[in-house]
Amino acid sequence: MDYDGAGPTHVTSNKSINLSPMWSPDTRSLAFTSYMRGYPYLYRMFPFENRPVQVVAGFLGINSSPAFSPDGRFLAMTLSRDGNPEVYVLNLATGAFRRLTSYSGIDTEPTWSPTGREIAFVSERAGGAHVFVMDAEGANVRRLTQAGFNTQPRWSPKGDTIVFTSRQGNFDLWAVGPDASNLRRLTAGPGNNEGASWAPNGRHLVFQSNRSGGYQLFTMLADGSEQQAIPRTPGESTSAAWSPRLP
Amino acid sequence: MAQRRGSALLIAVPVIALSLFLVGCPKRPATTAASAPAPTGSPTPSAAAPSTTPSPSMTPSPAAPSTAATTPPAPSEFRATDNLKDVFFDFDKYDIRPTDAKTLDTNAAWLKSNDNLVLVEGHCDERGTNEYNLALGERRAKAAMNYLVAQGVQASRITIISYGKERPTCTEHSESCWAQNRRAHFLVKAR
C-alpha cells in the first residue's frame, strides 16, 4: 500500500503463513518467510514483474529474518541448519552462505548498517534478548542494550541510530547509537508500540500499535513525535516494511 | 500492485488473513521443521527438499539448495494423540521445568513402547516479534526432543518444528492464556 494507507494490495495468495517481508534496495523484490511448502523457507518475489517466486533458503529448521545489504548483493538471514538459530549471509550471485555468529542459544534479526560494513542483531548470549552489533564478517561484537527484552533492531538510513523494540512493562520503541550512546525512548504507550521500519528519508518511522485495540500501523517522526494512525485496513496489520524510494 | 513513481510503499502482514487461514485449516499445519538429530557445526549445507511438489510458478533461485541430507515427513502427515501430553515454558525460556520433566518421562515411556515417528512442535505466546519467536519456539521443541532422546527415544524418530507465535491455542491477552501457548506439543505418525 502507499505510505498513507491507500491502495492496499495482496502480494501473496498461497493460503499459508507469510512473515517478515523485506524490500530489496532496488525495490524490485521482496524477501519473506513462508510456510507455503509446509516448512518456513525464505523466498523472494517480484511483485511488479511476471517472475516466479524463488526459494532463497530451504534448509532444515528455520529460515527467517531476511535483510538485504544496502548494495543488494547479500541477504542476511537466520538459519538453524547447524543446530540452533544463527545469523548467516547469502551471496545472491554465487549462492554461497557464510555463517556470522556462533552461539549455542538464539542469534537472529539481522539489520545492515547503510554502509554495509556492520550488522546489528538480537542475541540472548548475555541473558535475555539484547541488541548487538558486529562487523559484516561477524567479528568485533559489541552489546548495545543493557535492560529489558530487546528485539527487532532497524538501522537508520543515515547510520547514526538503531531503533528497536524493548519490553520494559509494555513493548515500546527505543533508539540508540551504534556505539551504544544516546539511548532514548521514542514511545511510552499507550498499549504496545513495536516493529519499527524506517522511511527512506530517515525522518519517519512506521510501526505497529495496539493502543486502539487490535494492531494497526502508525507513523511518527524519528524522535517519536507526530504519531499518526494509518487508516485501518480490514483486520490487524503488523510487520510493516517501508520501501526504498521508488524509481 | 500499482507502482507510484517518486513515492514509497509499505508492505505489512495482514493478521486477519492469517487468522482466517488458521481457523480454516487446523489439521494441515504449516510448519517449521528441523529433523532430528539436529546437525551441529556441520560445514556442509544440509538443505531440506520441499515436502510437496513445487508449483509451476515457483522456481529455485541460483542460490537455493537443491539436495537434501534428510527430508522430514510432511507435517500434515502427523496426528495428535492423547497419549502424549504438552509441556510448558516460562516467558522467553526453553528450560524443561521439573514438573514438565515428569510429563516428558511419561511421554518417553509411551514412545519407547510405541514405534511411531514423532513431531515436536515449539510454540510461543503472542508477545515479541515473529522472528524471535520462531527461534524461541525451535529452542523449546529442541529442548523437549533432547529430553526424550536422553530418556532413550531414538533421535532419528523425532522431527522438531517451530510455529513461533503463529498458532496459539488460546487467543486472550492474559498471562494465563500466554502460559498455555508457551508449549511443546507432540504428534505422531506411523512408520
Give a quick rundown of the structure.
With 247 residues, chain A is an all-beta fold. Helices cover 0% and strands 45% of the residues of chain A.
What's the layout of helices and strands?
The complex is a heterodimer of chains A (247) and B (191).
Chain A: E1 18-23, E2 30-34, E3 41-45, E4 53-57, E5 63-68, E6 74-79, E7 86-91, E8 97-99, E9 107-112, E10 118-123, E11 130-135, E12 142-143, E13 149-155, E14 162-168, E15 170-176, E16 184-185, E17 193-198, E18 204-209, E19 216-221, E20 228-229, E21 237-242
Antiparallel strand pairs in A: 1-2, 2-3, 3-4, 5-6, 6-7, 7-8, 9-10, 10-11, 11-12, 13-14, 14-15, 15-16, 17-18, 18-19, 19-20
Chain B: E1 10-14, H1 15-24, E2 34-35, E3 58-60, E4 79-80, E5 87-88, H2 98-113, E6 116-123, H3 130-150, E7 158-164, H4 175-181, E8 183-190
Parallel strand pairs in B: 6-7
Antiparallel strand pairs in B: 2-7, 4-8, 5-8, 6-8
Helix pairs in contact in B: 2-3
How would you characterize this protein structure?
The complex is a heterodimer of chains A (247) and B (191). Chain A has strands spanning 18-23, 30-34, 41-45, 53-57, 63-68, 74-79, 86-91, 97-99, 107-112, 118-123, 130-135, 142-143, 149-155, 162-168, 170-176, 184-185, 193-198, 204-209, 216-221, 228-229, 237-242. By secondary structure, chain A is mainly beta. In chain A, the strands form five sheets. Chain A has a four-stranded antiparallel beta sheet, with no helix packed on it. Chain A has a four-stranded antiparallel beta sheet with strand order 5-6-7-8, with no helix packed on it. Chain B has one domain (57-190): 60s Ribosomal Protein L30, Chain: A. In chain B, strands 2, 4, 5, 6, 7 and 8 form a six-stranded mixed beta sheet that branches. Chain B is globular, with a radius of gyration of 18 Å. By secondary structure, chain B is of the alpha+beta class. Mean pLDDT of chain B is 75; it is low at 1-6 and 16-57. Chain B is 28% helix and 19% strand. Chain B has helices spanning 15-24, 98-113, 130-150, 175-181, and strands at residues 10-14, 34-35, 58-60, 79-80, 87-88, 116-123, 158-164, 183-190. At the A-B interface, strand 1, strand 4, strand 13, strand 17 and strand 21 of A face strand 1, helix 1, strand 2, strand 3 and helix 3 of B.
